[in-house]
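>> received
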Amino acid sequence: MLEDFFTQNPRFAVAFSGGVDSSYLLYAAKTAGCDVRAYFIKSQFQPEFELDDAKRLADMLGVRLTIRELDILRALDVSRNPEDRCYHCKSAILSALWELARADGISVLCDGSNADDSEGDRPGMRALRELGVKSPLRDSGLTKADIRRLSKQAGLFTHDKPSYACLATRVPSGVEITAELLERIERAENALFGMGFFDFRVRALPPLPGAPMFGARLQIPESQWGMAAAKRADILAALKPDFDGVMLDMATR
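>> returned
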């Protein structure tokens, strides 16, 4: 039970992302009377809206939020984008979080992994285990659906927030990740969000021989394909400065 964890660990740090899971963990700990602190690592992989949501939630709960900038692309095992990039990225971020927590005299660090997260589909889980990060939501058997339901009951604005994978997942494995490419992807996704699209991805397509820029592959839920067709001209105009061609992926999402 989650309450048992709070009883045994009355003071701990949360690796906070502003997402559904870590937001509920922060709320539940605060409600249980724990001395809990939130730490947010801002790297090139997090869009600005995630930081805005984290600040809003922490302020709503009255929890101290510590933000640290991290140039994650300085790590070659991350920027080169190998198959296990997520492991190297997670290791660097968790190490930075541990440094912040220990500087504040905190000896327990938790993340928001839930019972739906398995070793098989999340390479970063190995980093959690190796660095001794606890996952109380997962250990308590709480699934994403459970957490959304409990978050709604608690009045958290994050209860229906779409799941969001970091910007690095938009770049195919083996293709170098650069700050410029991530900025292009973030601008494209912000533009589509402003047009009313949601729960979508803009994925980078490596340039064809002789092409000056990456192309863009849009993964949009089938229910929004009609809107994509109606707003075709707007989409092309918004993405043209950053991408050489735009395609709609009709095989996914």
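>> The mean pLDDT is 94.
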